[in-house]
TrEMBL record:
A matching Pfam family: DM13
Native species: Streptomyces lavendulae subsp. lavendulae
InterPro entries: DM13_domain
Lineage top rank: taxon: Bacteria
Protein name: Electron transfer DM13
């Protein structure tokens, strides 16, 4: 009888441990996000009028750098553009973005080279990088303001970065226009 009780207690302990590990694993990996899409359709940002000291500045937004997104850990397509607004501020714009959802995705501008294949998955946190915030959605058009005082010319690429697993979902080299 005591053996039966011990066996039941052991089975219960194993079931509790398996349930805890499964719960933690589901929270950490969030596999359901692979089948969820969040589409964002933001318009091109419009800033206030240009300051009087820069009357020669263009009247509307102007692309200063751009590049096509390539896939890394997950299939990723679209275009990244750094746009200078009439007031002198800059915004990173993702257009036609299509990637997977994932846990803790961020948009970074970096000075890392964009490499194809698995060689490019983990290079973006090795050098200079700046997080522009959480990825707003895994599909569509979206804008990420670049903070004042940051020189976009110091950054040569962008990445959709999974902070939880330290891996790039996709990236784009930025070429001056």
């Amino acid at each position: 009888m005591a053996t039966k009780k011990r066996r039941r207690g052991a089975v219960s302990a194993v079931l509790i441990a398996v349930t805890a590990v499964l719960g933690i694993g589901l929270y950490w990996f969030q596999p359901w996000k692979l089948w969820q899409d969040d589409t964002v359709r933001e318009a091109l940002p419009v800033a206030g009028p240009a300051p009087a000291s820069s009357r020669s500045a263009p009247a509307g937004p102007r692309t200063v750098a751009e590049g096509a997104l390539i896939s890394h850990e997950h299939t990723t397509t679209g275009t990244a553009r750094i746009i200078r607004l009439p007031d002198g501020s800059h915004t990173l714009r993702l257009e036609g973005l299509d990637t997977s959802s994932g846990p803790d995705l961020r948009v970074w501008i970096t000075d890392a080279p964009v490499k194809e294949g698995t060689a490019g998955w983990r290079v973006f946190d090795d050098g200079k990088h700046l997080s522009l915030g959480r990825l707003k959605g895994n599909k569509g058009d979206q804008n990420y303001p670049i903070p004042a005082g940051v020189d976009p010319a110091e950054y040569t690429s962008i990445t959709i970065w999974c902070d939880r697993f330290d891996v790039s979902f996709g990236a784009a080299p930025l070429t001056a226009v």
